[in-house]
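Morning. Coffee machine broken again, so started the prediction first thing and wrote up yesterday's gels while waiting. Chain of 288 residues, entered below exactly as on the submission form.
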Amino acid sequence: MRSLASCGLTAMMGAITGKGRAVRRAHVQKRTLTPRDTRNAVENVINRIRSWRPCFMECNICGNDKFLDMNGRLAIRCSQCGSLERARVLKLVIDNLNILKPGVRVLHLAPEGGLATYIKERIGEEFYDARDIDIDRYQHVKVSHFDLVEECHNLPSDTFDVIIHNHVMEHLPCNVWAVLYHLHRSLTPTGRHIFSIPILRGYYEESLFPIGEEERQRRFAQFDHVRRFGMEDLQRSVGMVFKIPDTYDITSTFPKEMLDRYNVPEVARSGWSGHSIFALKKEDLLLR
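Came back before lunch.
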């Protein structure tokens, strides 16, 4: 008996070459495939692949089982709460650390809807502090206005048990290390600073000069970014401020079946990337 993979490959080749059951009889006239025929067949196969996913895949934040394509990544954004890979990994991390308990004070910058709801339900709404510079963007959660560039030094020291932010630092037109320092300063002695940043191939680069949206897109992969963090020199950028591991691999903590179920792709499991989650302790700060 042939495997499903071999059957699928045979069907795929049949779609592309035209060698299906209908051409088994000798009297069927053969037809030369045109480039359009080949292109249509390939597009049909690609669309079938895009629509396929394991039946057990679900969002670990809201429980939804439908995912949408985003920026060339197939079936990756939760259609209900909007979670991306990094948010689902972050949820795995905070659950594994068991840090969300009633009365825990959380500062959440640029809060994601699903994560905000999940966190508030576990700590109590009065202990949840969501902030952003553009509060009009938010309807799912109450958000206070806060400008990290101008106000980070006003954060109270030793106050928050958990600080969370995903892909915020690349937007700040200022000394990003000063911002990270002040955020970390506001952690309690036993707190956790949990965040992700866009780590791309190559080296760290930034420009606070007004270079324009097209140049920002080319250099930093998005029109409103002012920096990129590089895989090649992560220890010489983030690693000079915080104690971080040389390598990143969550498969030693979370089993493959769990990562599959919660739609965490291979690229987000090992090797530094924009999906990697830092979960730093107070003592991980190297600047004294």
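The radius of gyration is 23 Å. Going to sketch it on the whiteboard this afternoon.
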